[in-house]
């Protein structure tokens, strides 16, 4: 009664004469309507369309955000078309900011398209993936041993017990 082949046939014959088939997520995008407010993270391998509000992180295959859509959190997608407002990091292979987009956060991308009128406050970084956070220097790490072997004030700062407490380097060196 509900076979996969019949479902694919229905999905491929819909539209204005053009054949469109989607293999990820069963064919239909997940839609967050304009009257929906979500608090929490969203994850899907397929397409996601956001016209409402999301407070949380989003991980999806493809993201389309409408003009009235908003996200407070990070976005991780293969492709992202942004028309709405984002407060947080965007990481996607392909990013397109349309003229109504407002992004307050860093964008990590392989391909970036920005229409005139789009607003961006943050860094734009070409990267296939987000760089790892730098390692913190401590007296027990290999990096600090290399730095402390150079002598001078770096050795005094790294070997002092105040290096991790945020006290001034003048106090640590004396």
UniProtKB/TrEMBL annotation:
<dbReference type="InterPro" id="IPR007607">
    <property type="entry name" value="BacA/B"/>
</dbReference>
<feature type="compositionally biased region" description="Polar residues">
    <location>
        <begin position="138"/>
        <end position="153"/>
    </location>
</feature>
<feature type="compositionally biased region" description="Low complexity">
    <location>
        <begin position="12"/>
        <end position="23"/>
    </location>
</feature>
<feature type="region of interest" description="Disordered">
    <location>
        <begin position="1"/>
        <end position="30"/>
    </location>
</feature>
<feature type="compositionally biased region" description="Polar residues">
    <location>
        <begin position="162"/>
        <end position="174"/>
    </location>
</feature>
<feature type="region of interest" description="Disordered">
    <location>
        <begin position="132"/>
        <end position="174"/>
    </location>
</feature>
<comment type="similarity">
    <text>Belongs to the bactofilin family.</text>
</comment>
<protein>
    <submittedName>
        <fullName>Cytoskeletal protein CcmA (Bactofilin family)</fullName>
    </submittedName>
</protein>
<dbReference type="Pfam" id="PF04519">
    <property type="entry name" value="Bactofilin"/>
</dbReference>
């Amino acid at each position: 009664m509900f076979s996969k082949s019949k479902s694919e046939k229905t999905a491929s014959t819909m539209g204005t004469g053009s054949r469109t088939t989607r293999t990820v997520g069963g064919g239909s995008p997940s839609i967050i309507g304009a009257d929906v407010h979500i608090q929490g993270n969203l994850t899907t391998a397929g397409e996601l369309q956001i016209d409402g509000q999301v407070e949380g992180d989003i991980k999806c295959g493809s993201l389309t955000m409408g003009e009235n859509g908003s996200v407070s959190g990070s976005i991780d997608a293969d492709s992202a078309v942004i028309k709405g407002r984002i407060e947080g990091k965007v990481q996607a292979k392909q990013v397109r900011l349309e003229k109504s987009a407002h992004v307050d956060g860093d964008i990590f991308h392989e391909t970036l398209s920005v229409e005139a009128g789009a607003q961006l406050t943050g860094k734009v970084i070409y990267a296939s993936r987000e760089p790892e956070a730098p390692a913190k220097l401590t007296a027990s790490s290999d990096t600090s041993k290399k730095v402390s072997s150079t002598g001078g004030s770096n050795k005094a700062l790294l070997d002092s017990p105040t290096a991790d407490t945020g006290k001034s380097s003048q106090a640590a060196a004396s």
